[in-house]
Amino acid sequence: MDSIKQPNFIVFGKNSIDEFNFPTNCLLITSKGAKSRGWLDRFKSKNYYIFDQVGPNPSIEIIDQIISNFKNSNFSHVIGLGGGSVLDVSKFVAYKLKKSKILIPTTFGSGSEVTRISVLKVNGKKQSFHDDMLFADTAIIDAQFLENTPQDIIKNSVIDALAQCSEAYESKISNNYTKFLCKRAFDVLENGIMNGKHDDLAIGSLYCGLGFGNSSTTLGHALSYVFSNEGISHGHALAFTTTIAHKFNNSIFYDRFYKIVKKLSFKEIFLKQDLDGAAELVLKDRKHLDNNPQKISKNDIISLLKKINDGMVFNKT
Q1: Which of 317, 230, 239 has the alpha carbon at shortest distance from 278?
Q2: What does the DSSP 8-state code read for residue 48?
Q3: Whole-model pTM?
Q4: pLDDT digit string (tens) for 31-47?
Q5: Helical H runs in 2-114?
Q6: d(Cα 264, Cα 46) in Å, to the nearest integer?
Q7: pLDDT tens for each residue of 236-289
Q8: Which of 42, 120, 222, 300 is 20 to 30 Å from 29 at the Cα level?
Q9: CA angle at 215 for the pair 90 and 157, rounded to the nearest 5°
Q10: Torsion angle defined by CA atoms of residues 146, 152, 156 and 159, in that order, rounded to the nearest 10 degrees
């Protein structure tokens, strides 16, 4: 038996944030750039608390900081406005405080606005938390946030989404529903990035979130976290780890994913830590590896990490 879970209410379409009736008593969680980018001008609620200090790869400590700052404040909703890191923090804070959640992505790749997953650093290592109470009550997907978005953010976001939907399509716990959404997501995202149709990235990311959120990412994500722990952005890491994982898994998406990554010209990445120790860390990520379509050993992981370090990811032989 398969089951499907998603937010109760999903709003999508360009300029949809302008038409949404926001609550008056809320805590807005975002990043430092929200004001300078004009995001807050789009947010029509007037009486709200704000926390705008969320950065990349947030840790569990920021959750404690926000809760400490606002636990005695009077608000009914937490609104997350930002990229995947902001959304992960917002949904976890709301979960801990038992508040309603409105999530609004401003980059389109993580799919966090429609998943039951929050990724945070614990003791310096990325950890994914899975719980139905992390679902948004309302998700708002508005492509207007793509306007004037730096190309580097766009390419990192789209690779994140492409990695998620293509890995989840082949996950052992995929089903007909998730495969349909993941395949459609890949097609739309690929068209958006290869043909410069950036509005497609918003709806493609939504399809992706609904698809992989009801399935699982696999080897590419398991490999990526050791690079992220050394400060490499998530999408940048996935450009290499999912490419090489797709090759290992004989993925139907390998050639297409390879071509997109090559087009986007990501700089080579290198893992500084000992590969044996890194492989041990990757092996502990059973949430991803147990759902991988192929069995993988520690020696396989070391070999894949070495190929990335040696610049061999785009060697098709």
Answers
A1: 230
A2: E
A3: 0.90
A4: 988 877 888 877 766 67
A5: 16-19, 39-42, 60-70, 84-97
A6: 40
A7: 999 999 999 999 999 999 999 999 999 999 999 999 999 999 999 999 999 999
A8: 222
A9: 50
A10: 80
Cα angle 309-310-316, degrees, rounded to a multiple of 5: 115
Joined tokens for residue 168:
């989840």
Query: For residues 99 and 74, is the Cβ–Cβ distance under 8 A?
Result: no
How far CA 254 is from CA of 43, 174, 205, 259, 279, in Å, comes to: 40, 18, 19, 9, 23
* DSSP SS3 for 28: strand
Structure tokens at 184: 């459609």
Place of tokens 């190309």: 151
- 309 CB contacts (<8 Å, ≥6 apart)? 270, 271, 275
Phi/psi of residue 250, each to 5°?
55, 45
* DSSP assignment of 239-306: HHHHHHHHHHTT-TTHHHHHHHHHHHTPPP----S-HHHHHHHHHT-HHHHTT-SS---HHHHHHHHH
| Alpha carbon distance 79, 125 (integer Å) | 26
The token pair at 213 is 């959120």
Which DSSP category does 52 fall into?
A: -
Return the residue matching tokens 């396989």.
300
CB 244 within 8 A of CB 313: yes
The single-letter code of the amino acid at 210 is L
Determine which helix (DSSP H) or strand (DSSP E) holds 122, and give its type and residue range.
strand 117-122
Residues 45-78 have pLDDT tens digits of: 667 899 999 988 899 999 999 999 998 999 999 9
Joined together, the tokens standing for residue 2 give: 């398969």
Contact predicate 28/81, CB 8 Å: yes
